[in-house]
Fold:
Amino acid sequence: MKNKIRQMKGFTLVELLIVIALIAILSVAVLATINPIEQSNKAKDSTVQNDAAEVMNSYERYYANAQAYPWMKYGTIKATVETPLLLTSNNVGFGVCDAGTITDEPNTISTCSVTSTNPGLLINTDELKTAFVGKDEFKNVSTSPENGLWLYKQAGSGGSVYVCYIPKAKSNREPTTNQLYCLSNNVPPTRLDSRVDAACVVPIDATAWGKPDAALSTGTVAIFKCVP
Structure:
């Protein structure tokens, strides 16, 4: 009996340490390959991309019914299909948050609330569901503009409408594989084809991505991923 007990030996301390070290190395290798933060950012970007596409589609439906875009309903001098505009997702002209009054300028800041008694025109006309207001792209846009959506309307009756956002994933910030644009107020968007673009006059770095509200000022630019 004593001989059997002697034969039932466990791992030594050194062996356990070696096994733990190997597991740690494999774990680091797997995390480096998978990069959970990047994967999480990709998932967030995918959600925002879908929301941007849904807003874009709602603009087309609204225009088909009203022969005007939401931002053309506002201001003492109403915008036309010729008017270039750059709006954030919490502006009355964007058409999702509180609709304000018709004398408000399109870029007037409005409050986003799913309980609003005067929701934006896209919500009012059932082009978007009321719950859409509760999405992250419409919360605290004034303090965190990098999380919002951005509407860009080119000048001219044939000018394109873009719904843009700032991607979080590094892979979505690469201009050679993504539809990235440099936007500035009242200036046609510039499609970026490289990491440093002469037309944009700014490298695609943390500064360019971190200050999207700069695009609202004439002469300054910011970089976005846009739909369509």
